[in-house]
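Forgive a beginner's question, but would it be possible to get a protein, spelled out as residues, together with the matching structure tokens, please?
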Amino acid sequence: MVRAMWRLLPLCVLLCGPAGALPPDEDTPTDPVLGEDDEDPLQLGPVDDELRDLLLGGDGASHDPFDDVTLITAGRLRVELLDVDVQNDATLAPQLVLSGRAGLALPLGDHRVTVVLGDGVRLGEGLSAGSVSALNPLYEVKLDLSLGAFGQPATVTVGRMAYQVADGRYLGHRWFHPRFGVTYDGAAVSLPLGPVLLRGAAFYLGPYDALDAQKTSFVTAVDGNYEETFFDWLHIETTAYGLAHKDGTPERLSVDPINVGTLGARVAGTAYGAFVRAGLDGQVQVRDDNPLAPAGQAVHGETSIGYAPRLSLFDQTLVPRVEIAAESTWGTAVAGRVLRLPNGAVHVFLGNLDLFAPDNITAATALIGATVNDRLACDLSVHTFLLTDPGAPLIGAQGDTILPVDPSRSARFVGTEVDGTVSLRVHEAIQLVGQYGIILFGDALPNRPVTQRLLMWVEFQHDVGGG
């Protein structure tokens, strides 16, 4: 305060006049004429920022540190009706999935700590396979350290965190999981270099329970993402990645863990509402007992093309959408799997029924849909599934074996699935979703009855604060 008053002294002197000023009834000297380059001796200089904040109550004098705290909340209530035989009412299996979490992200200088408590449960069955059963209530506990590298602001994150590589097919957040997304234990680093973002991560995948017979699994991942817009109408995004995964999952307890190396890339381009996407992955599987000889190789390819222009009709915004897509995975089966995913997304790529994993399967999809005012969306899609190699296994989305290895098998047609989805965003943080799927199986799965599934859920996600 004394310092501020001392800075005000020149202002008081100028307003009140010096002690030797002429009386008002005497002649005062004429002011000199100033040239263009002359400085006015009575002109005040700039006011000090600290003084201005003190006098006017600016941000520097009234900043509340709690403004930087972020409150994190999310929840979901989902009803599932699975009918594995449409003609038999006794096969209808209703399930209820509950998810919820809440936490805080707190600043620590240039760094940040996040603590989120939450869990999810499929009522009557507990959590689905792959969840961290021993530490479920700790959904996310991480420390973000803001560091510098090559003159750029790098970030190092340690703890339990959400993480996704590219589209999430191999390692993803898995938002459809009963926990409303999975998290991973480990460390990650990210380094932005202009339009390029470089990242690296290493995560422990289990087991977490001392009674679990699963052998140790972990994954390391590196990826680079390039994203830029050209000519104000062409948007390009490319991601290249590599993963090294030691797989010790429970279904192979009789064999040693398998070491898996994967290299891949995704490319997407958008221009005037039209879009094209493509991806290609190569994978090698090596057994622990023979590390110098690859036991099997696999290749995965995918592509899609579509058109989704943004239209304005009668003060309403309409985005119609049409898309066709295809993907295929082929290779050599090792311990019952052609393609191994460390912890990939399930309810994204191969239909609403979640019947098949992207493993020895070829699929084609046609979709039509529309979005109104960025709130109401609906789509209808048709998927056709084939075995890439009739003699190789068919794997379910949860890792179960639907068809084992059978070199004598010649039938390839798995089935045709029809899906529909409707979603309504009633608030920026609240969304209602309904999904339906039905499949007619082909000659590769003879005597299988028609299966259908209905999903309905309400979800809430909202972060409050300055984080």
About this structure: The chain has one domain: 83-465. The longest strand covers residues 92-108. The chain has a mean pLDDT of 83.
